[in-house]
Amino acid sequence: MKKFLFIIIVLSAMGLCPAVLFSGETGGIDGVLLAQAGSSVAEKIIGEWEMAPYNGVVSGKITFSKNGTYESSEKHTDGIGVGKKGQYKIDASVTPVRIDLCLDKCGAPGSEWTTLFSILRFHSNDELEIRMSPDSNHPKEFAKKGDDYTMMLKRLK
């Protein structure tokens, strides 16, 4: 317990704060989501977002919840609707900020095959860009111009 408190104090002194601590019992993420103090990405991302068309997706929505889960629905160019849900994990201790969108649970055996390893940035409080990776590595930077791996989102009011 003393080690845990010491880690919390050290993180706070470094300008990082444990934004959210989830337990596996509540359907959340095992671990700590770190976000910069004062501009918490973990808090800012919460809500419902509308997707701009990209890579075969005509329209869609994604909702990020406080408990570390997300749910998305997409309509593809072939008319098929696709729904996904699972956990998300944010690491704001690196630049660019990383987000892992996991089907079902992050860290579960085999989840490396069903996780979108991504980076994110806010253009404003209501505009979010998520760049996904075509492989199992986080992208190192954002595309200069939109590409097949970039999801542009607008917050729904």
Structural write-up:
- With 157 residues, this protein is mostly beta strands.
- The chain has one domain (2-155): Lipocalin (Beta Barrel), CATH 2.40.128.
- Helix content is 10%, strand content 46%.
- The protein has helices at residues 2-13, 41-44; strands at residues 16-22, 31-36, 47-51, 57-64, 69-76, 81-91, 97-102, 115-124, 127-132, 150-155.
- It has an 8-stranded antiparallel beta barrel with strand order 3-4-5-6-7-8-9-10. The chain has a two-stranded antiparallel sheet with strand order 1-2.
- A hairpin with a 4-residue loop joins strand 5 (69-76) and strand 6 (81-91).
- Residues 1-39 have low confidence and may be disordered.
List the topology elements:
Elements: H1 2-13, E1 16-22, E2 31-36, H2 41-44, E3 47-51, E4 57-64, E5 69-76, E6 81-91, E7 97-102, E8 115-124, E9 127-132, E10 150-155
Antiparallel strand pairs: 1-2, 3-4, 3-10, 4-5, 5-6, 6-7, 7-8, 8-9, 9-10
Helix proportion = 10-25%
* Helix and strand run: HEEHEEEEEEEE
In DSSP terms, counting alpha (H) and pi (I) runs of 4 or more, how many helices? 2
Percent of residues in beta strands: over 45%
**What is the count of β-strands?**
10
Relevant terms:
157 residues, mainly beta, two-stranded antiparallel ribbon, eight-stranded antiparallel barrel, disordered N terminus
